[in-house]
Predict the structure.
Amino acid sequence: MSAISIAISVFLALASPSFGSLLARDDVAAQNCNHDFAYTWDDGLSLWQVDIVDEFTCIGGKTTFFVHGNNQGSCIYSEDHVQSLRYAFESGHQIASNSWSNVDFSSLSQSQIDIEIQRLDEAIVKILGVKPRFFRAPQGQLSASTISYIESKHGKIVVSTDSDSGDIQGGASPEGNLAFYQNLAKQGKSKPHLSRSYATTVAGVDGLDFGSAETLINAGFKLISVAECLDTNAYEAVGSYGVRDSSWTCDGSWTSPATSTTCSQTYAAAADDKTCEKIGARFGVSGLAIYLANPYLNCGDIWAYTPVCIPTVAATLPTVCVQKYTAAKGDTCSKIAGLFGVTSEELFAANTFVNCNDIWQGTSFCIPKASNPTSCVSTYTASDGDTCKKIADKYGLNTAAIRNANTFVNCDDIWAHTPICIPGKTATNTATSTATTTTTTTATTTTTTSTSTTSASAAPTCVSTYSAAKGDTCLKIANNFGLSEQAIKNANTFVNCADIWEWTPICIPPGGSTSTSTTTTASGSGGCVSTYQPEVVTTCQKVGQLFGLSEAAIRNANSFVNCNDIWAWTPLCIPSGGSASTSSSAATTTSTAAASCVTTYSAGDNESCSSVATKFGLTEKAVYDANTFVTCGSIWRYTPLCIPPGGRGCTKTIKSWPGATCETIASNYGATAENIQFWNSFVTCNNIWTDTDICTSH
């Protein structure tokens, strides 16, 4: 489980039907905890926030930061503050609202209060993917009517304090702060407290260094967050971390996105929608985009029939980071882009806050997914001690080429047996060799000999990757795919052809013959011309014989099946190129030609053509036309469904390996565990069956 998931789950697991006696009235701020001790901080965006986090983590306690958006020129969107907030959040500490700016709420109108709360909420949602439920006024007490307005309009839990350390007062000192907490400790652990210190004062921060929190621990207190001490949730979950864009600024005036968003439609939430993320997925936008268009929503618990504005364009999440990079001295956008195989424009679009020609050392960069990803010409299985440089040297490439093609690895610490994509050569040798090229047509074979300059150790492009089964050899795999044993050897020089380990990724090169007969060419290279459901258990070879195709053609068109044990009634794609001479007694085929499948999806519980269409951005008719064998209103669980092109469909599918989880798959393929779960809703993330078809990219 990722640090982000842990941080969210710590707080979202604390739900309680009621908030306890201290939250019984909607016009009174909660001043104390129900139990234990909540040590909290006001005036957040402190330069010392990381130090505070480390101190509480060291003593086994939790704390709560009430933060501002823009306080005395300190902007929440600065990279230092973004990273320190995420650090505190991922460490399990609570982030709460102290309002956008440090102002006296008693002097504000309701519309001004709205801006103070909503602008900060928007910032925290962008940075952390959650909306804080807790609010504390930055100066003085709030009137009963103001508390009631904030709670009813913005859904906040308004809190105050029973014990203010006074760090912000003139003459405050670290020694005074320590004495304050020592006095609270003497009252005994049976008396709960909700204390307030100030994260921007020397007295408060140095008082912590002097032992204020440790004193409480030694007195038997349990230091917990405000949400924990009031037995409720800290946040409403909205989505995942956002990526910096031009809206991440404290400059200028602010208008709620909801007032400037154009709705493509108004959608009535279904009973099973529940979250902004889920509704966003229905319409191809982010959960954050849904929230920004509908800031009144509780993104973690949306009621059925709630009207939801669906924005025309997804906002504020234009880029997905495949990894992070910390800038070195002398880096420029062009230099960093070259390291990761992206363009300078793509890099800047994901990091608009930087000056590309004057990048500070230590700046954290989002590395976006390349628009033109690297193609692998072969797959290499890493050995102990391998690094990107060693592998690059082995294949006559530069280190950056290996890094760019395998962004999931740590280049200095590659685990043994990791499959490494080997991209096309960037340099050729000067040796002249004789190359023989064979071109096969339906009935004739022509052999041509030519002289050419070839890349050193050139490997063919892979048309697919096959996960080796127990007992496989190069010859056996070659026979399965209609290739020569030498072709498999050339494309996979790292393997011992007589002893291939189970689950080894094998590059399948182009050029496989699909039939030895000169009268039938069954390449299976086109889309599905029909769908066939065998009435009894069968094999790829038998199905191929029915349709005048090779076993390899059937296998290639139906990579999700076990070719030696195909279950009865499994819908099979029949590719083009066969004789199609099947009698009606031998097989049942669809009469309408189906489109090519971009992926195969295994149906979950209570699936329908409509629910599948929504998942992949297709029409219900498109799903049915590609799967005419199903009853659209009641699709059986685990039914393999063809997902045709034209939607937001899966663009890459892999076979799971033993022990694979959503987390490990996401790590290997540059996705998030949450996306892997959503794209493959039929799996249990911590118990994925071996050899399951898993979608890894949309």
The radius of gyration is 30 Å. Residues 29 and 159 are 5 Å apart (CA to CA). DSSP finds 24 helices and 27 strands in the chain.
